[in-house]
Amino acid sequence: MSEAELIKTVRGLDQSGPGENGEKLVNLWRCLTASADSHFHAAEQSCLRWLLKSMNGSTRSAETLRRYPMTWRLLDCVFQRIPLFSLAKSLADRKFVAVLQQALKDVSHCQDDHTTATSSKRKRSPPATFALESLTTRDGCAESGQAIFTSLRTLTRRIGDTTTTSSHDKVGAEHLASLFASPASEAATLAAPLLRICDVLLESGSFAEATGSEDWIDVVASLWHLHLQGEDDATEVARHLFGPASAVVVKVEGLAEKGDMSIPNTIRDRWSSGLRTFMHRTLILPARSTFLSHQNVDVITKALARAELDSGAPATNTTVTAPALYLLASTATQVLIERGVRRGNSEWMKRVFQAAEASIHEREDRASVMNVMLKQARESKVPVSANDLRVVCRQYALQDGETDWKLVANLTQCEPDVFQGSAAGTELLKEICERSVAPEAEQHYDAVLQVIDAIVKGFRNARTFSTFLRLWFEQLVAVEGKKSRQRSPWTSIGRGKSPILAGTSWVEDSCSVSEVNEMLDWIDSLKPQPESLCLWLNAVSQGIHSDVYKDALGQKIFNVILKVPHSNTDISALKWRVVSKAVACAPISQRADNMALIKGDLKKILKKRSLNTAETFEAFKCCCRLWVAFSPDGDQDELLADLIGDFDDGLGSREELKAQSLDFVIPDGETDNDFSSEHALPLYVAWCLQGSTRFSRLFFNRKSELPLAVSTLLNRADDSKSTIGHLWQTLLDNEHCINETKLAGMSVDRTIDAFTASQKNGNWPDGTGNIWLRSIATVPLDALSRAQRERVMLALVTAGTSPKTAKKISLDSWKAMFSLSAKLMSRSTFYEGMAFQHLLDMANYVVPSVNQSPAEALSELVERFSAMATATIQRVAEHVEKRSAQYLEEAAVFVKQCEEAFKEDKSQRIPALHLTLLKTLSKLLWETKSLHHYDLTASLPANATTALKEGVLRVIQGWASEKKLFSSPQTDMDLGLFAAVDAADVAKDLPELSKIKSTSLHKLEERSAKAMEAGDVRGWRVQTLLQRFVPMELQKPRPATFHNIQGKGREAVLRQYVVSIVKAMPTAVKMMYLESLLGEYLGGCHTDGQLIAIHYVVGQLIEATDLQISPGEYDLAQGHSDLTRALATSCTAVNSVYICRTLCQLLENKPQAMTQWNVEVLLGTIASLSSDKITGVSPPPFIWMCKLVEVVIKKHRLRLEGHYHILLSVLQALLRNLIDEQPSTPAAEGPSQETKAGAFARLVTLVCEPTAGAVSRAQPHSALDSATDAAKRSAGRHMYLVLMQYVKLQLESHVSRGVREALEPAMNSIFDITPPEGRKILNDAMDASGRAVLREMFKRYTRFGKWTGV
């Protein structure tokens, strides 16, 4: 019926047309959808011919039909049903391409040119009606475009379908493709309007209605690739396609400075990737090839010029096209670099920049457009000609007496050498520096700071850093003459948190000793400029670290800084920082003379005791530093001690000290921050405790008390509890203070007094109590006397066993109390009234106060209580005397009560932490053999074990019977579970568990497995118990997959779970289990839990003494090979560390099980990972790669003989990775580049200076030839290549002084073993620059590195 109705409807179209409102088309759509299962296509073919015939023409009705979305939906439907051969014939007969061109031309132009708001909450537009006025609106065009793209996507997919097997269909597909096989100029008439329709969609914001719009760019690319290829294709793309494409690029890439659009991320990402690929292939790469061949950029110029004149896209102009073109060119260059293509990239990008700059040169908004381009160049790190940047800076940023600092910052960061290498650059630098000290520059502080940073980089690159030091001083002098000098970025260099000239050795990294000496002589010859001199010398003195620089420059800096006259400004106060550094660095013989020159000024300043001035504070710090530096054998320490003592004695009468606010947090670390008069007291205290590590100890030894600033703060403890806690924490953390017996005793006694006094508060433990509790916990155990330990334990026990106090103690406080008790009881500590009942009381009182706590916290609580109970009972069991006998009697009574409770009620469960006490008693009393001879304790271990087994059994029974414990947690049951797991090893076996029904165990297993997947730690614990006691009753007795560990302490939970699985396995079964674990990981189970399980099983196999593998069976060598494969595919750094740890374990502890294959594959994998040849893989940390190679060199050195080419490739790749890829500044957590360089140097020295054990053989070479000498000769024939690589890297990259010093021993060891012919090869293989570097390295080797002894 539906087929007949479809035929009737199609035939009626010739007579009635589409209908007044398009109702005939809607009816046709209904009929087509109803006949979807038909195997005939005559009606569809008739429909197609009628639609194309009606759409052709210039009449109003034809245009309406071309624009109407339903028309294209009908075409999309028939495109899918008509066989390809017939479809191609019909489309050719009805001139489909011409109809499509006209339709695209219509739809790509809208009546309203205003931009529709594109908010993410935009209301859905009503569907377009069959009326030309409705269809020509922007929303109507967007809806029509969506329908056109959908039909074209169907068509292109059918053309490119490779699954068709019919030859008839293949011919039809070729005929269909030939419809679009036109020259580029004609193909552009399709692609250009399609791109404009994409822009229409972005302008309209009708993303919700445009389903499938993510594929639009792919459709454009597919149609374009069907055209006939020609030599001028790139030119046609530049003329016709680049204009509309750039309008889309600027929106999806966010290049516009205003009018940001809320584009869905899926569309943004797909269109961005698709447009980049399409334009790279059709425009950028052909234009680049033309440039490399003929040195012209006509294609780029035409693209920019044509896009500006493109009247078909009013939004398209150079504001869009220039940044869009530069973005496409830079991203194409990055793709080429990733593929290893580097030739011509630099010159090409420079010419593209020139063409883009020429296109915007006459525009009024050229500065803003240039900012966008330079920002791209800065982010992409593409080269820009320094000459071009100078022109841009002159003509764009420095016009009409105004300065565009944002533009200057962008261009200088793009190319720091813009001010180097020419007279024009020098003149430009001079003008920039003059403008940077003008008052107007203060409004652009951050931008000017970026410019200064680029200037610093430029002078470093030019290796004329001393010239910058001179320039910097001149700028400081210029700033000093301005009224608003405090806000100048020039004064922030080398101070505080400024990243410019940061670090402790920046002078040594950039200047030689002679250059700094020349600078000091030049400054010394000038008229003194106090503030400039203080700022400059302060930064320079902070940048000196090595003894060589200190010895050479210390006295010279002191002589220069003495010229600074007295001043009350904060900047001039920096003089005393420089003085302290310089005097400490000066020769010892000149200390007395230097002190004679400054002691008068120091006395005057400290005598005034003006606490609220920076000069007093800096002078005080200077005295402290010099006292610490001169003690204990200096001649001037008495003078400095008297100065500081007199200053401190007079502080008590200062009213401003008593009125200081304590709300300021005492800063951590080295307190060389700027002085603040509002927070003077905390700054003095911070310096006394943190800034000068030995000062508090020296002061206390002299005066038997703390400095008055610290004492004043202690006496006002009630005003600021957080400050007092931080104060004592800092004092107790200072190892110099804690190692001084009297000072440590006084500090600890004061802390304990405060802790016991805080317990008198009815709200204990409040904030103060917790502060003192944490402070005592951080004191080293050796610093606590027995009396102090007993005082603290008595206070803890009193609080924990009082019902009134215990219910107020929080979970965190309980954990802190248990940890501190375990720490104190690890030494002989018998506090007053010590009894077993104290442990019982705390075990009972802790449960109500931790109700509704997280499972992880409860598990940690059980662990800490167990540690406390173990330490306490162990102290009692060490020596049996009256106190310990009474203690054990109470324990025996406790065990008996537990046994009776179990006998009276078969379902009775004792409190959870009682299980922990039973476990501790059983374990410790069994291990203490001396107690077995006493009647009191002879049966106690066995009784405790029996009660413990019954308690663990009751816990498992409770979890098996109560089904809602995972969804509705109960604190007592959770604690019981964790205590049972903790006691599982002592309980050993529970044969009574066989009485539990297998169905109950299976259900418990299923519930716990679901909890494990959800990340519930209780699921892991239940599974651990089941695997430990009833593994054969489980449905999955040997799980081979493990989830990711989530949260703190989960690794230990997983390890216990794996232990419970593996513990009872025979060795052969463990090997099979390892094979299954590795197979699951390589199969896709890339979790850290899987790797932790693998690591533990490997450790068990290494320790096994009965490991026997038959030929052909899985062994440790195959496991090592699988782990190496896993390392090459590791997707996270965490996983790679676990794999490296396991590989090291195998290589080091089981070398006889490894083969030559294992060693070579591992070295090859490390070389690939360190050189980034494996994409999509997260390489392991550099230190771990070095550890792997180190183990190979030490344990498998003999396997490297004859295979040095593999080792060399690894060492060269690691060296390049160290210098080019590893950050020069250490991360927040991780080793520094110098530490990594030391690890690499260790590898080289191991190769060049092998140990006898690493290279010894069963049969030596000869009686007169040692194995180490033979290994050195063998290495000497190859290792010079590593030295050559290092010289090359020094010329290509910046190698810091610290890295060079760390690598110097390694290079010296290579010089040691390299024969004369190898050195000749080194010399011949290098150019003049390389030979100069090598000559300097060899000179240092002969002076410092070569062994000249007997």
UniProtKB/TrEMBL annotation:
Residues 1139-1349 form the Nucleolar 27S pre-rRNA processing Urb2/Npa2 C-terminal domain. InterPro entries: Ribosome_Biogenesis_Reg, Urb2/Npa2_C. It comes from the Eukaryota. GO terms for biological process: ribosome biogenesis. GO terms for cellular component: nucleolus. It holds the Pfam family Urb2. This is Urb2/Npa2 family-domain-containing protein. It comes from Emericellopsis atlantica.
